[in-house]
Amino acid sequence: MSALSRLNPRERLLVLGVLPVVAVLALIWYVWLPLQDHRRALTERIADYRLVEASARAAAARPGTQRPELSQDRAPLAARVTRSAEAAGLLLRRLEPDGGLLRVTIDEAAFDTVLLWISDLETDEAVGIAAIEAERRIEPGVVSLRLTLEEME
């Protein structure tokens, strides 16, 4: 209190009046706003998980979710993937055959469309996912993907 008592009454009133305002602004800036940003990010993640869950349930409820019978006269893996992507409305940026695998790159696509396409690949085309990398884009619900696909046996 000695520092405050050395101030004249006008300075003391100014310090005591500004100090609570600064404290409130600091709480808002360093506590409230970061909490709100974190809450918003978690809400978006929950919405993404609910979308995945709904897509998985819709795929499981569709008739014909059994694996197709494998036949010897199937089209090559790249042709089936390309045909299926076109039917789903997806633009494949790159297809790279790698032995029995096929690496596929999709730049920007709606996440729910991609999930349905992957489900259709597995159920209709007998194509399995060996690896997948997804990156979220700035637009909500849009992702870029790198997939490694393989024949299902």
TrEMBL record:
Q: Does the keyword Transmembrane apply?
A: yes
Q: What is one GO biological process annotated to this record?
A: protein secretion by the type II secretion system
Q: State the UniProt keywords alphabetically.
A: Cell inner membrane, Cell membrane, Membrane, Protein transport, Transmembrane, Transmembrane helix, Transport
What are the record's GO terms for cellular component? plasma membrane; type II protein secretion system complex
Q: Which domain of life is it from?
A: Bacteria
Pfam families, from UniProt?
T2SSM
Task: Extract the SUPFAM superfamilies matched here.
Answer: General secretion pathway protein M, EpsM
Q: Where is the signal peptide?
A: none
Q: Does the keyword Metal-binding apply?
A: no
Localization recorded for this chain is:
Cell inner membrane
Q: What is its main location?
A: membrane
Stated membrane topology is: Single-pass membrane protein
What sections of the protein cross the membrane? 12-32
Q: Which Gene3D superfamilies match?
A: General secretion pathway protein M, EpsM
**Family membership noted in the UniProt record:** Belongs to the GSP M family.
What is the official name of this protein in its record?
General secretion pathway protein M
UniProt organism field: Limimaricola cinnabarinus LL-001
